[in-house]
UniProtKB/TrEMBL annotation:
Signal peptide positions (record): none
Similarity annotation: Belongs to the diaminopimelate epimerase family.
Protein task: Catalyzes the stereoinversion of LL-2,6-diaminopimelate (L,L-DAP) to meso-diaminopimelate (meso-DAP), a precursor of L-lysine and an essential component of the bacterial peptidoglycan.
Lineage: Bacteria, Pseudomonadati, Bacteroidota, Flavobacteriia, Flavobacteriales
Pathway in which the depicted protein is active: Amino-acid biosynthesis; L-lysine biosynthesis via DAP pathway; DL-2,6-diaminopimelate from LL-2,6-diaminopimelate: step 1/1
Catalytic activity annotation: (2S,6S)-2,6-diaminopimelate = meso-2,6-diaminopimelate
Gene that produces this protein: dapF
Protein name, per record: Diaminopimelate epimerase
């Protein structure tokens, strides 16, 4: 199997050009093996780029445990991959598990339009919302020293959330214009260096209390930007912007993975 390895602010993916459907039957066990950081290629997730009617392509995302979801950073990397394959120029429309997305790419920076968010719920002093995947958002102090794995794992597996699972984001306000976000990701079952839908969720919980339309987000793997407009209790015209990089390419014999 020919693969490409991409990363978006440290959230990393095995990327496969599946436009001919050669890997439609890729098993969950094989996806887990390919994502394994000791016995496989190693990644937070695997993405198949499929052909799709009426749009440029389909982004078919799997977490490293084989579960499916929408992935913001993965979608951004998919746009960079499609551009690399000369499937698109600087603008695209594609489909994913949560619906149709527009995106733009310029000099390796991908700007992805996220789905609208109709409401932000609360759980105690914390927030719960869906930005294409489900997110829990908790504001904390001194995030650098915070036990993201322990607390994130506890919330993700709590009575309320354990059935469907939820991504758990910890947020520290650095200034009126910048947040620091660390995320425990469902389906990876660990902290990742960046979570696109997660930083979007964090940004919206921040913007709901002020009139900003832009937030800079520091993540473990770099910097992301989120733009959004208030729309009643929710937000519309939400964009996630940041780098997407092809790290290497290769061939792997699935039988031996
Ligand atoms: N683990 C997430 C999907 C990937 C989200 C994250 N990698 C992103 O960039 O949005 C979930 O199961 O909902």
């Amino acid at each position: 199997m020919k693969f490409y390895k991409y990363q978006g602010t440290g959230n990393d993916f095995v990327m496969i050009d599946n436009r001919l459907g050669e890997w439609d039957d890729l098993s969950i066990e094989n996806i887990q093996k390919l994502c394994d950081r000791r016995f496989g290629i190693g990644a937070d997730g695997l993405i198949k780029i499929n052909s799709a009617k009426g749009v440029d392509f389909e982004v078919d995302y799997y977490n490293s445990d084989g579960s499916k979801s929408f992935c913001g950073n993965g979608a951004r990397c998919s746009v960079a991959f499609a551009h690399f394959l000369d499937m698109i120029e600087d603008k695209t429309t594609f489909t994913a598990i949560d619906g149709i997305h527009e995106a733009e790419i310029k000099n390796g920076i991908v700007k992805l339009k996220m789905g609208n968010v109709h409401n932000i719920n609360t759980d105690g002093n914390d927030f719960v919302l869906n930005t294409g995947s489900p997110h829990y958002v908790k504001y904390v102090e001194m995030l650098n020293n915070y036990n993201v794995y322990k607390i994130g794992n506890e919330i993700r597996n709590s009575e309320t959330y354990k059935k469907e699972g939820i991504n758990v984001n910890f947020v520290e306000k650095l200034s009126d214009k910048e947040l620091f976000v660390r995320t425990y990701e469902r389906g990876v079952e660990d902290e990742t260096y960046s979570c696109g839908t997660g930083v979007t969720a964090a940004a919206l919980t921040f913007m709901k209390n002020n009139n900003q339309k832009f937030v800079e987000i520091k993540v473990m793997g770099g910097q992301l930007k989120v733009y959004a407009e208030k729309d009643g209790e929710g937000f519309k015209n939400i964009w996630l912007e940041g780098p997407a990089v092809q790290v290497f390419k290769g061939d792997i014999n699935l039988d031996k993975a």
